[in-house]
Sequence to fold (70 residues):
Amino acid sequence: MAIEKVKAYFKKYNMENRIQEFDVSSATVELAAGDTKIDNSKYKKQFGTKAKMLSPQEVETKVGHVCKGW
Fold:
């Protein structure tokens, strides 16, 4: 998804100032996460549910981006 498309989407929710751009790639899950792991107990305390991966259908519905290659 092009950064301009993301900015336009976020602007609808007054969140365009939350976008961060980095010099290093985050094109894959491995690159984006690096050595960072979710602290499951902190996540559950904050959000009241266990962390889980979204299904391809949930990604499209919630984010508006189609998952390819699943």
Observations:
- The chain has four helices and no strands.
- The radius of gyration is 14 Å.
